Amino acid sequence: MIEALQHQLHLLPAAGHLAFAGGAILLAYCIFGLAGFGSSITSVPFLIQVLPLHTVVCLMLLIDLVLCTVLNLRERRHVDTTELKRILPGMLAGSLVGLLLLVRAPAKPLFLLLGLFVVAVFLWNNVVKRKAAHISPRLALPLGLGGGVFTTLFGTGGPLYTIYMAGRIDDKRALRSTLGVLIGTTALIRLCMFAVAGLLSNPSVYFLAVLALPVALAGFVLGNFLHDKVSSQGVKKVVWVILLAGGASAIFKGLS
Predict the structure, then answer these.
(1) Please, which residues have CB within 8 angstroms of residue 59's CB and are 6 or more apart in sequence?
(2) What is the sign of the dihedral through the CA atoms of 238, 236, 180 and 134?
(3) Three-state DSSP class for 139?
(4) Any stretches that span the bilayer, and where are they (predicted)?
């Protein structure tokens, strides 16, 4: 057993890479604690610089299962089940497509796709989007499909789910609760899919998760502590700068 443990420790990334990954996770969950979103979409573009893509998506899944699902399900009684049922079929179909791409597609095109998606989210929120608009329930299928693909590939489909839910649900508490349950549901679905596909068979993922969980929790606690002490507009500006930098780094990695 000791020899097996030593072998797995030998397979872990170099100390410098671990420190970089730890910093990215700390920052991402600090943002999550401050803004209530952004853990995966701000961390994954940086994590893929030092860790394999499969390791990154599995690592973020395990962290989200432990932290985000529990935190987001606290107010599940306010969930809008009608909208949840509308978006689930598209999300399930997109998850299957995303899993197929994750397992079979080469890494570099996926890095490029991630970077372009992150930049598109930045442009949508800072250039295109002007005000909240009530949208048609027919968009549940395409937005659920896209959200499922990007959630399974990178854990970053949240913005697409938010576009749909924010355009359908006016009550902020119901919106937060519904998104929380949807995120928790996607995490459980990914857990089953990744297990069947063998993506969770690498023991080093669990070693990394054990190392990353305290860091993620510390970032979340720090973000909560700073929530009432810093300007929300200032936080948003910092988040968008980090997001744009992460998207650019993913595009560069995909093209290099």
Answers:
(1) 47, 51, 205, 208, 209, 212
(2) negative
(3) helix
(4) 14-34, 46-67, 87-103, 110-127, 139-167, 179-200, 206-226, 238-255
Helix (H) or strand (E) holding 56: helix 53-66
Type of residue found at 247: G
> Angle 198-64-87 (CA atoms, 0-180°, nearest 5)?
85
**One-letter amino acid identity for 38?**
G
pLDDT by residue (tens digit) across 140-158? 999 999 999 999 999 999 8
Segment 115-128 mean pLDDT: 88
**23-47 per-residue burial string, b: 16 or more CB within 10 A, e: under 16:** ebbbbbbbbbbbbebbbbbbbbbbb
Instruction: From residue 13, give the alpha-carbon distance in Å to each of 17, 19, 126.
Output: 6, 10, 36
What single-letter amino acid sits at 126? N
**Three-state secondary structure call for residue 177:** helix
Q: What is the radius of gyration, based on Cα positions, of the chain? A: 18
pTM: 0.86
DSSP 8-state assignment for residue 124: I
For residue 68, report the phi and psi dihedrals to the nearest 5 degrees: -65, -40
In the predicted structure, residue 14 carries a pLDDT above the cut 50: yes
Torsional sign, CA 55, 106, 93, 165: positive
| Per-residue model confidence as pLDDT tens digits over 37-79 | 778 899 999 999 999 999 999 999 999 888 766 665 555 667 8
CA separation for the pair 179, 189 (Å, rounded):
15
CB atoms inside a 10 Å sphere around CB 174: 17
Which pair of structure tokens corresponds to residue 150? 């990007």
Q: Which residues contact 10 (CB under 8 A, 6 or more apart)?
A: none
